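Entry:
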Amino acid sequence: MTVKEASILIVDDDSHFRETLTDALSLRKLEVHSVTSGAEALKILETMTPSVMLLDVQLPDIHGFELCRILKRSQRLKNVPVVFLSARYTEPADRVEGLIAGADAYLSKPIGLEALWDEVRYLLDKSA
């Protein structure tokens, strides 16, 4: 899969953070979709299979770990790489729980856009 064929789903209730990520990843020629809640994520995932999903841990309606577990139980979505992004859940035990839930990576906010891009590119290359 080339970067131009890749799609990213951002699930984060922080509009400024979501817009910044959308703009930065769009500049990399990725197709970017973003939603603000777990319910919106589940709705859009009915019709799309993203190449990578960037998932906030603390969402307004469902915990990110639980949403990840739901995705990993889906035959169609279980292989979509998930990157957790969190400003609050940054302890080593939180990271372990996120990885056990099925995440491929766990990054703390604030995150540099280059570091995030490196992780996304690595996951895209790995799934190619």
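The chain has one domain: 21-113.
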